[in-house]
Amino acid sequence: MFRNVFSEGVAAAHVRPSQFFNKPAETMDRKEIEQTRDKLLRWTVNHAYSNNALYRKKMDAAGVKPDDIKTASDIHKLPFTTKDELRSLYPFGILAVPRNQILEVHATSGTTGVPTLGFYTKNDIEVWGEVSGRSLVMSGLTKDDVFQITPSFGMFTGGFGFYYGARRVGAMIVPTGAGFSKRQIQYMIDFGTTMVSAVVSYILRLTETAFEMGVDPAKDTKVRKGVFGSEMWTEEMKKRIASAWDMDVYDIYGFTELCGPGVANDCYLHDGLHLWEDHFFVEVIDPKTGEPVGPEEKGELVFTTLTKEAAPVIRYRCRDISFLMDSHSCDCGRTHRKLGYIRGRVDDMIKVAGVAIWPSAVEAVLLKHGQLGPEYQIVIWREKGLDKLKVVAELAREMKRDEVENLRARLQEELHETLFIGAEVELVEPMTLPRQEIGKARRVVDKRAE
Ligand SMILES: [Zn+2]
């Protein structure tokens, strides 16, 4: 059975949220942001050096003392921190405060091995609520909204991150958490949900569920605003979601080691993510050499927390790839610098027959075609010693056999032009590929290691 759940991508009309969560902080002038940042950076380095054995050991080994760090321009003197180092300190080695000052702990999904942890003091929870609140108001949340939080409430930071922000805004919260998709849609209708938050692949699942139930999200629900994150996604995907729900789609960024969602978020102009520079400092480096790259140049993001008490991170290589925008101003009035949208992680890159491939590049090619749904899978295997690549995508509507064949041939050509390597394309019926109720979508299946 064919159903065109996702219409071709047309962005919904922009609604301009008129409010700020904390206007003085969000519109500080540049000089004030930089002075605040430098003062907090000095505090963070001192705090980490005095209270955490790893940071002291690393700084001593590099021959750098806290007093050597006076402004952000000195930060290169400090060594990087990696995910493996943080993991090696599991569970309490990353703390810089006594254990009895910790109110909460969260963890990455840790599908491979030891999870990475995030710890929070009372003040860390306050800060999380603040940056999440700023991000949600920037995404249009007001106290009049009914806000459904669909990421799970648990070790994952998603549920609580949105919750702490929404509590501060004063919206009516519907804390469904993940899963039970039919019930989620029913609650949306019953409570008149106006805004929803989700992991990107889960809003796709909810969309399909709504249609399965005979509910057209754009017509039969009041949801007109959504804030999504936690997975790499393209502009094409945003447009698909926006059209299906007739909603404004916002992009939120963050991860466990910093706090969770709320580190950065896009404003109604949808041109990059405002990073809350009074709480986080970012550098962009060449992942191969570790050297800084210039504004507008892509590289690996390296974060330093500025206010985190429980477990500060210094020059943390987070593996996400993006760039820092050159401009220091935005027409929305916020003065915090913008990051480009996250299009991938260092670890997402797959080498096929010696060629580097990014799943986001495949997604961008596929989703330009309205005949395809938003779900896809990239499959890699080895045959007679050679790497093989196949892209499986779902049709969104009924098509004649020759039309399908034409589309398939065209996709193969377009993928070849984009990826510089031949890919087999398989077009399948809707709902053929596996869906996730909880957790992140599995877009890449690499059978070479199996
Ligand atoms: Zn803006």
Write the layout of secondary structure elements.
Blueprint: H1 23-26, H2 30-51, H3 53-61, H4 83-88, E1 104-107, E2 117-120, H5 122-138, E3 146-149, H6 157-169, E4 172-174, H7 181-191, E5 195-199, H8 200-212, H9 217-220, E6 225-229, H10 235-245, E7 248-255, E8 260-266, E9 273-275, E10 280-285, E11 299-305, E12 316-322, E13 338-339, E14 344-345, E15 350-352, E16 355-357, H11 359-366, E17 372-383, E18 386-395, H12 401-419, E19 424-428, E20 444-446
Parallel strand pairs: 3-4, 3-5, 5-6, 6-7, 17-20, 18-19
Antiparallel strand pairs: 1-2, 7-8, 8-9, 9-13, 10-11, 11-12, 12-14, 15-16, 17-18
The structure holds zinc ion.
Structural account:
With 450 residues, this protein is α/β, with parallel strands linked by helices. It contains 12 helices and 20 strands. The strands form 5 sheets. It has an 8-stranded mixed sheet with strand order 4-3-5-6-7-8-9-13, sandwiched between helices. A 4-stranded antiparallel sheet has the order 10-11-12-14. It is globular and about 70 Å long. The mean pLDDT is 92. The site of zinc ion has 6 residues, from loops.
